[in-house]
Amino acid sequence: MNCAMCNIHACKNNLKNAPQNCPSLDGDIEKIKEIYKTEKNYTIAKISTKLSTEYGRTRIEETIDFAKQCGYKKIGLAFCSALANEAKIIDKIFTYNDFETESIICKVGGISKDTVNLSDTKPMCNPITQAKFLNKAKTDFNVVVGLCVGHDSLFIKYSEAPVTVLAVKDRVLAHNPLGAVYLADGFYRNKLFPPKNQF
Asked: Within 10 Å of residue 157's Cβ, how many Cβ atoms?
């Protein structure tokens, strides 16, 4: 299974053209289709599928439309302290669009990095507490704003409400990590494909 390297992508057109190792031909697909019919999955799948064919909106506009059409009332914002200004604006946007918001910063609790056996005086990010506090607030839908790689994973793991990512942190590229991907054959090539040690 290596869809990233496939040049056919028969799943988008005609499965008759699919290569033998195509996961689209797996018999489990029919069983998985039934999972979409469960109540919570059905609503999310239907609305996100509908919205994915409507172009011309920014990510935040699409998030607002999605949340409204799902009937979500309370939005949780789990944000990185490095994006505190952005989180304030995002909170205002959601509030203006008739959502109740709960927001929680990554450094909540000010817990020491020695919790994970690192010697550093600065507090560590605390994504599990972010998730637990939003769970306690009974948010309908949680929005991640700039959590670090891995911290976002822990937040998603412990969030009881569905989660989407509005912004990812990339300190070098103004929070646009695809910039490096678009430059992978040019300026960033040596950083992304460094010469391997020869032994």
From this structure: 11
Contact assessment for residue 76 and residue 143, using Cβ atoms and an 8 Å cutoff: yes
Environment class of residue 58 by beta-carbon count within 10 Å: exposed (0-12), middle (13-18) or buried (19+)?
exposed
Angle at 41 between CA 62 and CA 13, to 5 degrees: 70
- Number of other CB atoms surrounding residue 124 within 10 Å: 18
Residue spans of alpha helices (H) in the chain: 28-35, 39-51, 59-70, 84-96, 127-136, 151-158, 178-182, 189-192
Residue-wise pLDDT for 36-55, tens only, equals 999 889 999 999 999 999 99
User: What does the pLDDT look like over 115-163, one tens digit per residue?
Assistant: 999 998 899 999 999 999 999 999 999 999 999 999 999 999 999 999 9
